[in-house]
Amino acid sequence: MKKLLFVAAIFASTLAFGQNAGTSGNAKSLLWKISGNGLTAPSYLYGTIHITCDATLEKPTLDAIANTAQLYLELDMDDPQMQMTMVQGMMMKEGKTMKTMMSDADYKMVDAYFTQTLGMGLAALDKMKPFMLTTLVLPSMLDCPMQSVEQELMRVNASQNKEVLGLETVQEQLAVFDAIPYDVQLAELIKSVRNNFANDKAELVKMYAVYQSKDIDAMQLMTAESENKITADYQDELLNDRNANWIPKIEQIAKQKPTFFGVGAGHLGGGKGVIALLRKKGYTVEPVN
What we know:
Layout: H1 2-9, H2 12-15, E1 31-35, E2 43-48, H3 59-66, E3 70-73, H4 82-89, H5 98-101, H6 104-118, H7 122-125, H8 130-137, H9 149-159, E4 163-166, H10 170-179, H11 182-194, H12 198-213, H13 216-219, H14 229-233, H15 235-256, E5 259-264, H16 274-280, E6 284-287
Parallel strand pairs: 2-5, 3-4, 3-5
Antiparallel strand pairs: 1-2, 1-6
């Protein structure tokens, strides 16, 4: 269950992988150097993927970690309180439950699916935000043991006795799925269960292939044809607003210490992506190949 909570804790970029409007002609790279505009030493920005079959980091990435003083992820993943906070934030507000929101037939169908897939039915999951159940299924969509780039970054960082911190809190990240109506989330969950998550798995496979190509501008376009209403209709909540909120934090952090920032790759490209926003602030952001 702890590994499932880790996946859920970094869910938003997985769903919203590549949704920023507009392309920006970026080079094919996951690693970017941030310099200029008063920085005394460069920091680095790296696009992660939250679940993968191979989380191996290339030498330029390892060098960038070695040349920085700390690691910032979307969340402070080594916070000992994260799991408890995560469990609390996964629950729907105002006493809502999936049982009261679904027909008996749909409830039985979803209950049977999660009992078979996770070994626990809706009696244990009934109060969760519906999208959180989707994130718990993600590892079962892989045809390999699950790995995570974030966990690998943390491992390398720990070997160098450096601190891990977060750009946002668990509460801030999970609040995204209070802003998206629960009935929209539930409708998508029911649709996915009905087709045995076939569409979700196909999109996950495609997402991984695009990630391996390192084409961050292609990443922003890949979900344009998605049938998922959450993906299609809530781009600001999932990506754009969060990107904008991160910029002043990244600026302040990078001015204090050279830092390695690792965030979901879908946050990097496009006109409202982190790279474009940093450039608008006057920073030089260039690929490291």
